[in-house]
Design goal:
49% of the residues lie in helices and 20% in strands. The protein is built from 7 helices and 7 strands.
Length: 196
């Protein structure tokens, strides 16, 4: 079973950001199920945690529901992070959430990046704002990042293909992370190595 933490930075209810996150998780569940794996998902809507995030920035530690979300992120095998586009970047709420994490929390975690915005013109924010942020934090962003403009929600075929490509890459990254961890459990003594 893989543990996935979903961070949704949408401010509305309903939110196109959450719709995109739900599509990713639905497809990831189906993809992993086809590979004989299961999925345990926790979803955090940052709009519900806005005040605790600011409090954590001021006090230096998260409490209550925010502390549980931080623990979920730390325990997750991978992340799905979806942000609305504000001023050609991630929302301040999303950035603030990741600012409160302890250094090393995301080290080596695969992450699928997603963003929503009014037009396709904002799609490069994934590459010049989100990807560098998560690389700096030690996460391993998968190659495909998913941008959904308002018009994409009416053209489900093209958006669906992009989401599935990102999901396949995240599933492959999860399998690779587990294989690496399993290989690290096997210790071969030096005499055996020399004899082989």
């Amino acid at each position: 079973m893989y543990r996935i933490a979903v961070i949704s930075g949408g401010l509305g209810s309903p939110s196109s950001t959450r719709v995109l996150a739900d599509d990713v998780i639905g497809r990831l569940g189906a993809t992993l199920d086809a590979r004989g794996e299961s999925l345990d998902v926790t979803v955090a809507e940052l709009r519900d945690l806005a005040h605790p995030i600011v409090d954590a920035m001021l006090t230096g530690f998260p409490t209550g529901d925010l502390a549980r979300v931080v623990d979920d992120v730390a325990a997750a095998d991978a992340l799905v992070v979806v942000s609305p586009t504000f001023s050609a970047s991630v929302s301040g709420l999303v950035k603030s959430f990741f600012d409160i994490l302890e250094p090393g929390t995301l080290d080596g975690k695969p992450v699928l990046l997603g963003a929503t915005g009014g037009t396709e013109r904002h799609s490069l924010m994934l590459e010049f704002a989100m990807r560098p942020l998560f690389s700096y934090l030690g996460a391993l962003p998968v190659r495909t990042a998913i941008f959904a403009a308002t018009s994409d929600f009416g053209a489900a075929a093209s958006l669906g293909a992009r989401v599935q490509r990102g999901v396949d890459e995240l599933a492959d990254a999860l399998a690779g992370t587990r294989a690496k961890a399993d290989a690290g459990d096997e210790v071969v003594d030096f005499a055996t190595l020399l004899a082989g």
